Amino acid sequence: VQLQASGGGLVQAGGSLRLSCTASGLTFSSYNMGWFRQAPGKEREFVAAIRWSGGNTYYSDSVKDRFTISRDNAKNTVYLQMNSLKPEDTAVYYCAADRNVRTGARTTRAIDYWGKGTQVTVSS
């Protein structure tokens, strides 16, 4: 199984980035997908998740109304559109896959597969 994340980079505060994560080696449409992030010296934290069907989405309070998660099951890809970026959004962003209906890719403990991460840096 591989989860390949891309789209990170350096952006000024207030700017936007779109992350993508393409999966292979698994039945993508059976997995809930999530995005997590980890800043230097901090624990990995939940950012956003989307159910296998795309019918339900979840966000952390810190990104709600600024970030949007979506998926295209035909392309085995999940996206994270990040708008109004802030310096505190700087982190390595990881995509994740979770088959558990109850946890739904919203907790690090229940993740089945992790991607390698992509760096997002927001300058002030």
Textual characterization of the structure:
It is built from no helices and eleven strands. The chain has strands at 2-6, 9-12, 17-24, 32-38, 45-50, 57-59, 67-72, 77-82, 91-98, 113-114, 118-123. Strands 2, 4, 5, 6, 9, 10 and 11 form a seven-stranded mixed β-sheet that branches. A hairpin with a 4-residue loop joins strand 7 and strand 8.
Percent of sequence in beta strands: over 45%
**Global shape:** globular
Please describe the biggest sheet, giving its number of strands, its sense, and whether it closes into a barrel. 7 strands, mixed
Please, what is the average pLDDT?
Answer: 96
Contiguous low-pLDDT stretches (5 residues minimum) are none
**Estimated structural class:** mainly beta
Query: How far from one another are the termini?
Result: 37 Å
Roughly how many Å is the radius of gyration? 13 Å
DSSP summary: helix tally = 0
The total beta strand count reads 11
User: What's the helix-strand series?
Assistant: EEEEEEEEEEE
How helix-rich are the residues, as a percent range? under 10%
